[in-house]
Amino acid sequence: MNSGDDSTGADAGVGIVNPWEERKDRGRFSALVASLVLLATAPRKFFEGTRPDAGIWGPLLFAGLVTLIYMVLGSVVFTVLILTLPDQALEFVYETVWRMDPSQFPTAEELPFGTTLFFLFAFQVLLLALPALFALTLVATLIVGALVHLLLVVTRTSRPHGFRGTWVAICYANGANLLGIVPIAGELLATFCGAVLFGIGLHVVQRVGVVRATVLASILPLLVLVGLLIPRL
Question: 84 in helix, strand or coil?
Answer without folding.
Answer: helix
